[in-house]
Amino acid sequence: MFHNISVGALVEPVPGRRWNPPEIGRQFAHRLSFYHRLGIDWPDRVLLHYGNTAEFFVDLLAIWTLGGCAVPIDPRLTAFEVEALA
């Protein structure tokens, strides 16, 4: 629909969950469509809850593909750090 991607597997070290390239492609297409429907475009900033998960990295890829800037937010950040990132 939008773009073909070529990536290796994504592995979450702690739970050991693994996404192979076909699963990443499915997840990427789903998230790309979702962010596209939201109207994400250059130079939009999208705040994402930072998580060391496969979903987080596929979200980054989808947002970047649409020209947006993903800003990872970690609950441990101070208000100053969040303002600086945004």
In short:
This protein is an alpha+beta fold and 86 residues long.
Structural notes for this entry:
- The chain is an alpha+beta fold.
- It has a domain at 41-86.
- The chain has helices at 21-37, 54-65, 79-85; strands at 10-11, 18-19, 45-49, 69-73.
- The strands form two sheets. It has a two-stranded antiparallel sheet with strand order 1-2. It has a two-stranded parallel ribbon with strand order 3-4.
- The termini are far apart.
- The relative contact order is 0.19.
SSE order and pairing:
Blueprint: E1 10-11, E2 18-19, H1 21-37, E3 45-49, H2 54-65, E4 69-73, H3 79-85
Helix pairs in contact: 1-2
Largest sheet properties: 2 strands, antiparallel
The average pLDDT score comes to 85
What general form does the structure show?
flat
Give the end-to-end Cα distance, rounded to a whole number of Å: 30 Å
